[in-house]
Amino acid sequence: MKQQSVHIIGAGLAGCEAAWQLAQRGVAVCLHDMKPHKFSPAHQNANFAELVCSNSLRSDDYEHNAVGLMHQEMRLLHSLIMQCADATKVPAGGALAVDRNLFARQITEKLTLHPLIEIIHEEQITFPDDNDCMYIIATGPLTSNTLAQAIIEKIGGQSLSFFDAIAPVVYKDSVDFNKAWYQSRYDKGDKYDYINCPLNKEQYYAFVEALLTAEKTEFHDWEEVHYFDGCLPIEVMAERGKDTLLFGPMKPVGLTNPNSFEKPYAVVQLRQDNQEDTLRNLVGFQTKMKHGAQQRVLTMIPGLENARFARFGGSLMFALPDKLPVVRDISRVLPSGYCVVISRLVTFWGILPFSLLGQRHSALCSLI
Questions:
Q1: CB 147 within 8 A of CB 256
Q2: Helix residue ranges, H only, the chain
Q3: Could you tell me the residue range of the domain that residue 212 belongs to?
Q4: Does residue 309 share a domain with residue 171?
Q5: Is residue 1 part of a domain?
């Protein structure tokens, strides 16, 4: 008798890991993803597990950080995500940052070449209604509108959204090292992990004023704006108080400027964004400023006056259902062959996963 395949909808972090873990245990998998036929606003290439930020995996310190501990546990479970992250990592102090393009490419290649994984490039626009099949829905916060509505209708609830933002990326050879310097905070890790751009007090408050008055992306009147607090746009932080950034992404502590005897009042850090180290992203500088405003405001930072931007920052809206049945009642809502994971893999972004377990196949979720 031919073994039944598990169908996984969505090839982000969660969907890719689920597909790999099942296939490695001898379970045939059909992995469905809408790319390359359709892209969400955050997607830029056709590969799976595409990350918006090189530091999406956060801390790798397993002794002092819960996320780092989870990384170690996943390594012990032979996680595909961790294998590819370790193979494509870039210097980032205690964080696990990766070359986003290489990371996604490696995951795509490993899944495509696995003999038990069939790749199906199509958009899933309805909630699967085949009760004879097993499904994992792992489409994440960027679930297409049609499927998100179908999920909401199946499980009940109303739509829920939050806004997130992307940090700009500059070419490293456009940074002025007469003003900037290499150093990791408190000299942790390699000194080349971060480039530092110092601001004095006058420069800092002029920069904050420019942030506050810059032209920004406007949302529709009907859109209720909720930001993900773990990744606030820098101008939103500045709106909470002109000194807020001094205790956030621009804190000057743990750094010594070799180009000046003057202690910096604020510092902007640039982290490596690819393995060739030709690109650097502005750490914590997620923004919803319009592109022209970004060019004008960010080049006020000493050392970035002539910066060339490989990518400007931007804002995105993510959608998730707001009402989910508790696990003990799920058998009344979904057929027993379903497992729905509407999240990024576990807590890489600090977002708890919504896991809806079918009675027959709850073991599938233990693999995610």
A1: no
A2: 13-24, 66-76, 80-87, 100-113, 145-155, 201-213, 234-239, 291-298
A3: 165-316
A4: yes
A5: no
